[in-house]
Design goal:
Blueprint: H1 5-11, H2 15-53, E1 60-63, E2 68-74, E3 79-85, E4 88-93, E5 97-102
């Protein structure tokens, strides 16, 4: 009925190994979230940033709103002028451009 002193001392000695074991599932969940969600999102944002920086006159683009047009003028770092119909031009914020349909080649330097 009584617990011997040697058995009682051995039962409570978890120490640092026990603390690591309790945090191991949390660490694993964070690693899985990083590789399945965070890292691909960062990669996608980097590709979008490169695409937006590479825009130039003559590229045919699609905006987030679904408008398809051709870039007629690159105004500055934040906006471009897009021709959506003949003689119809609108200013579009660069970061709302989702896709480049037709990319124009840079002019040859002589």
């Amino acid at each position: 009925m009584f617990v011997t002193p040697a058995f009682a001392q051995a039962a409570g000695g978890g120490g640092a190994g026990g603390a690591f074991a309790t945090f191991l599932p949390l660490i694993l969940i964070f690693l899985i979230m990083y590789f399945l969600l965070i890292r691909p999102q960062q990669k996608k944002m980097k590709q979008h940033k490169q695409m937006v920086e590479a825009l130039r006159r003559g590229d045919q683009i699609v905006t987030q709103g679904g408008l398809i047009g051709k870039i007629s003028k690159v105004k500055d770092d934040e906006e471009v002028e897009v021709e959506i119909a003949e003689n119809v031009r609108v200013r579009v914020v660069r970061h709302t451009i989702v896709q480049v349909l037709n990319k124009t080649e840079p002019a040859e330097k002589a």
